[in-house]
């Protein structure tokens, strides 16, 4: 991973073999980024994505292992339980150009992955929701 | 809906049962946001999305009703006819990870929806295009 | 094409018949934009998208010709070989709301295309990778 910082924006390059979530989380820990968002593109060879079912209150997961284009990648950065927390969704395109997507657990870069990440000057928190067990955005100032 | 404002960025959380377009439009009206763009992720239980056919000059619509991940969501904020106007496209992933997408008319949040919205300091206008009847971006300064 | 500049953000409208990559590249050349990123939405009538196969180290391409919604569009702007270089991925939705996507070579706008482009104050470079022949982000300061 290599990156370049321009004001509040990080331009990040992930290389073959690097895990997207793990690598971005390490960058956030290192630079104390506790709030922000990012978009990305590139290609991955392995990914695990999830779909949440509100009825069963749980995720179903699929592991994908093939050459995929990252058709879209968007995520936000917050702090949960004192640590950087990355919430990202991804769309992946295969060699027939069909697209699959969902909640991104992890993906391994095959060729390259290019991310533009905008950092907030303040942290954004998350608190665990009792009902669902999910970490939801804790937004107080300015809220309803 | 709850939100947090950091400089020109709004971090917005929509909760179960809230309509994405309606809620963002209400936020823009309340805070007089007349220009901006946003990305989002989360999950919805109902959505109506459209596809425009230039030949018939009209949209075809589909109503989806199932647990969907918001695989991608991007939109812009402008002013049309004196009111905030939200133009957004969305990709939705079902429990087989198949993705459907198009122009977002409206969607109802099932679990949560997290949006990062960047506000411009000026309004961006739209004017109705005589030929298509669509509201197109009215961009004068800096244009060709 | 018409655009409006607000601080470091360009709001760009592409019109029917205009090519997305060619037009954005011309804008970057004209305004000496050598670093940035963008998101967009709209509709196209023709597109050529690619999928990279790391094994054969080459792209396979498909030409699509139908009315498509731009379900998602994200790209970055850099400088390669002294010229603006646009790297973008796209998801396209057809009239059944099925989505196809990949690396965007070029697409022709059918109705309109609306882009928000954030410009960096500095250029971001690319260098040709000997192994793959691809132009990879050249990120030195701040990198590992």
What is the gist of this entry?
With 144 residues, chain A is mostly beta strands. In chain A, 8% of the residues lie in helices and 65% in strands. The interface between A and B is large, with 41 and 37 residues.
What is the number of beta strands of chain A? Answer: 8
List low-confidence stretches of chain A. none
SSE ordering of chain A: EEHEEEEEE
Q: Residue share in helices of chain A? A: under 10%
- Mean pLDDT score of chain A, rounded? 95
Which percent range describes the beta-strand content of chain A?
over 45%
What class do helices, strands and sheet pairing of chain A give?
mainly beta
Overall geometry of chain A: flat
Count of discrete alpha- or pi-helical segments spanning 4 or more residues of chain A: 1
Quaternary? homotrimer
Query: Strand count, sense and closure of the main sheet of chain A?
Result: 6 strands, antiparallel
- End-to-end separation of chain A: 40 Å
Task: Tell me the greatest interface.
Answer: A-B, 41 and 37 residues
What is Rg of chain A?
16 Å
What would you note in describing this structure?
The structure is a homotrimer of 144-residue chains. Chain A is mostly beta strands and 144 residues long. Helix content of chain A is 8%, strand content 65%. Chain A has one helix at residues 20-30, and strands spanning 2-6, 9-15, 36-53, 58-80, 83-93, 99-119, 125-128, 135-138. In chain A, strands 1, 2, 3, 4, 5 and 6 form a six-stranded antiparallel sheet that branches. A two-stranded antiparallel sheet of chain A has the order 7-8. The first copy, chain A, is flat and about 45 Å long. Chain A binds chain B through residues 35, 37, 39, 49-55, 60, 62, 72, 74-76, 87-91, 99-103, 118, 120-122, 124, 132, 134, 136-137, 139-144, and chain B through 1-7, 9-13, 16, 39-41, 43, 45, 67, 69-74, 91, 93-95, 97-99, 110-112, 114, 116.
């Amino acid at each position: 991973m290599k990156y370049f910082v321009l004001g509040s924006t990080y331009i990040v390059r992930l290389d073959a073999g690097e895990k997207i979530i793990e690598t971005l989380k390490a960058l956030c820990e290192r630079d104390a980024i506790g709030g922000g968002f990012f978009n990305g593109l590139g290609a991955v060879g392995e990914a695990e994505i999830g779909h949440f079912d509100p009825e069963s209150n749980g995720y179903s997961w699929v592991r994908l292992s093939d050459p995929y284009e990252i058709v879209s990648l968007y995520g936000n950065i917050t702090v949960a339980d004192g640590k950087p927390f990355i919430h990202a969704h991804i769309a992946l395109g295969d060699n027939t150009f069909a697209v699959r997507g969902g909640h991104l657990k992890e993906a391994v870069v095959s060729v390259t992955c290019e991310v533009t990440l905008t950092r907030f000057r303040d942290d954004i928190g998350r608190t665990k929701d009792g009902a669902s067990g999910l970490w939801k955005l804790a937004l107080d100032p300015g809220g309803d």
